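STRUCTURE REQUEST FORM
Protein name: 8-oxo-dGTP diphosphatase
Source organism: Aliikangiella coralliicola
Requested output: structure tokens
Priority: standard
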Amino acid sequence: MSLVQVAAAIIIKDNQVLIAQRPAEKHKGGYWEFPGGKIEASESAESALARELLEELDIHIADPAEFSEIRFDYPEKSVLLKFFLVTEFNGEPRGLEGQPVQWVAINQIENYQFPEANLPVVEKLLSMSDSKAEY
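Status: completed
Returned output:
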């Protein structure tokens, strides 16, 4: 089984995180996710993240910080997710590919259904929210 490498963004503004809904026809369709996409063979995770966020959300990011790296094996595929914290960006995020996007209070993120590979990040965000960190 091949390994799909993905760069994903934890985009935070005013103690809210931006999430997007996966298209119905995709793997885990209808679930919510952190925006991003596949890393191409010729690019770094950071450049893939910048490209994907421009293509999907019409935003330019600055200084993404490594947040978490998770390998997860689904029955049908294996993924290596590289998550980055993004607090500096230009533009107003909008779903350029027709995907719903929304800002959610970090302490409310557990009310949304995420793919299993994303759950450690959801838990990490909730624990940071519990510690009253400000973003």
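Reviewer notes: Residues 3-130 form a domain with the Nucleoside Triphosphate Pyrophosphohydrolase fold (CATH 3.90.79.10). The two ends are 38 Å apart (CA to CA).
Form closed.
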